[in-house]
Amino acid sequence: MVGVGDAPPILDFSAFYTGDTAAKKKLVDDVRSCCLHNGFFQITGHNVPLELQQGIMDWNKKFFDLSLEQKLEVSKDTSNTWNRGYELLKSQILEEGTLPELKEGLYIGDEISKSHPYFINKKLNSGPNMWPSTTTLPDVEDFSKTAMAYYYKVVDLAKDILKVLAQTLDLEESYFDEFAEGAVATMRLLHYPSQPPDSPQKLTRGIGAHTDFGTITILLQDKVAGLQVLDNQTKEWLDVAPTPGAFVVNLGNLMMRWSNDKYISNTHRVINQSGQERYSIPVFFSGNPDFVVECLPNCRAEGEEAKYKPITVEQAVLGGYADSYGRAERFKKDAAAKASKGLVAKGVAVA
């Protein structure tokens, strides 16, 4: 059982792959307990090889060691409209009232060709990936090969986790299979510079306090801590210490909505005050973009109204993006306007 004030427990997911009925039932019970408590747990015993985890994390660091000019060659803001490629530092504000966040990222997903129906119909985050040129990164082929091998392994793991989640809700193991067919999942390589010592502590974040937009998130951390989860009962922030080989798993807003708030999409943040660079790799499993999410069986009493109206996966996730990126853009425009007014007040001409 998960206790109040406990950090997300580490569960042995290997029970899912065995014929041990008792071990599998214990895994389902433990996952259920986590979903009801803080919506977070960690897993070992999965099918993603440790060497593949290490390989993609090494590439994460190599990519962010490139110069800003080199990274901007694959900028998601100028290279495409389907949310693939490099994202600048301070591009997002997930927590209202904080400064733009101290993280930079690289968006990667399924290799969707421009002839694919998802691309043609401009579905959620669907299009070809943006890779550096061989001039910028001579061994980029190994980078893309490692990244895609890791991505597909984690997407498969997400589908296995969904089978466990179905059982925690007393549904058939295959209940979410249709939702997972043709699913969109987005991977972000992330780099967090250490927070400057003179930065305003209550305003500066690697990632501000937020909940995830999709269904489930599977996170790989490096050795540097910084991830914190809010305990719903004590309202204390719990540190999630990196564990070699383990994934941090959390539920997103869609799963909470789907379960009629029975399960928790919990608030979390990253504050890197370690003096070291932090790297992490989340994979956000959203689901089939056209799938309509509405209240699950067993998640409301007979005759009780669902708390949420039906919504497609795409509508729900795009709404979250619009809020967080729009917040950062408004902050920058306001800052520029204030700076301009200050210059005018001092008698400096502003073009």
From TrEMBL:
UniProt keyword terms in alphabetical order: Iron, Metal-binding, Oxidoreductase
Annotated Fe2OG dioxygenase domain residues: 183-287
This protein's record includes keyword Iron: yes
Gene Ontology biological process: small molecule biosynthetic process
GO molecular function, one term: metal ion binding
Pfam family, one: DIOX_N
Family to which the UniProt record says this protein belongs: Belongs to the iron/ascorbate-dependent oxidoreductase family.
Name of the protein this chain belongs to: Fe2OG dioxygenase domain-containing protein
